[in-house]
Design a protein that fits this description.
By secondary structure, the protein is mainly β. The chain is built from no helices and 11 strands. Strands 2, 4, 5, 6, 9, 10 and 11 form a 7-stranded mixed beta sheet that branches. Strand 4 and strand 5 form a beta hairpin.
Length: 119
């Protein structure tokens, strides 16, 4: 199983960025997909997750209203649209996949993509 995140980069505060996570080696429509981020020295932070149908989504309060999770089951890809980025959003972003909704244990993790937001 591989979860390959992409789309990170250096942006300025206020900019938008869309991350993608392409999955392979698993039955994509059987899995809930989630986005997380981690800053060195801090705990992993949950951001959002989306049900296998795409009709259910849950967000962390810290990103609600700014970030949007979506998925394209035909492309085995989950996305994270990030708007109004702030320097505190600087982190490595990665996706996870697991079975269950709304609660689940994540079975697979990607290696992530780095997002840097300059002020």
């Amino acid at each position: 199983v591989q979860l390959q995140a992409s789309g990170g980069g250096l942006v300025q505060a206020g900019d938008s960025l869309t991350l993608a996570c392409a999955a392979s080696g698993l039955s994509f429509t059987s899995y809930t997909l989630g986005w997380f981020r981690r800053v060195p020295g801090k705990e992993r932070e949950f951001l959002a997750r989306i049900s296998w149908t795409g009709r259910g989504s849950i967000y962390a309060d810290s990103v609600k209203g700014r970030f949007t999770i979506s998925r394209d089951n035909a492309k085995n890809t989950v996305y994270l649209q990030m708007n109004s980025l702030i320097p505190e959003d600087t982190a490595r972003y990665y996706c996870g996949a697991g079975v269950g909704w709304p609660e689940l244990e994540y079975d697979y993790w990607g290696q992530g993509t780095l997002v840097t937001v300059s002020s």
